[in-house]
Amino acid sequence: MKLSEVKAILNAEFLAAETDDLNINTACGCDLMSDVLAFVKDQSLLLTGLINAQVIRTAEMMDIVAVCFVRGKRPPEDVIELAKKSGIAVLTTEYPLYTACGKLYEKGLGGRGSAQTL
Amino acid sequence: MLKHYEISGTDFSAAGEASSNFKLILKQLGLPADIVRKVAISMYEAEINTVIHGGGGTCDAEISDKSIVISFNDNGPGIKDIDLAMKEGYSTATDTVRELGFGAGMGLPNMKKYADDLQIKTTPGKGTTVVLTINL
Fold first, then answer.
1. Which is it for strands A44-48 and A66-69: parallel, antiparallel or unpaired?
2. A54 and B106: CB-CB below 8 Å?
């Protein structure tokens, strides 16, 4: 799925993005950064309600290409600047985490494997 | 190549700067993506621990032909029970740290998962040294 489709499905707004032509292969919805660090997949999107700098740092370590903040949250400007510096796209959507994940999953954007492999 | 980093114990927003810088160096050296990621994740978890538990400290990262060895040193309270600390879900982190997305008791287990070797030397009341080795 393209990042532009993610934006459309979530009726989201870009806070930082060099391009919306990125491929998003998997997504992860999580507020626990250590759990995100246990999740390894390329070209991922992270959906979260946390808005501190460590969300961007975590994304950077995991090569996560885009972060979408849920429930209309907007991180402080320094967090957006850190994302720009790291080349990570940032979006914000009014949908809560569960609904945002469900909408993307419904349109074919999967998570990481089945329950048995997690 | 040897890199030295000072880790602040008070500025949580700066936590991860050393890992970020070292990851960039590894990428510039052209190391394989899976190695870079193993280093980045284990180093970042250790760096976060140095900030939230150790009260800050130092980090020395060395790249040689065979391995990458990263050592974190702090003068914090130490780990009372290492076996307990290695268990997923066990944490002594404060509520403030938990609100920031950490303190879920996954730090040391994640380090063990991603590093090829993890050594911990700790003395309660004096501090902790964590050494991560990733084979090349």
1. parallel
2. no
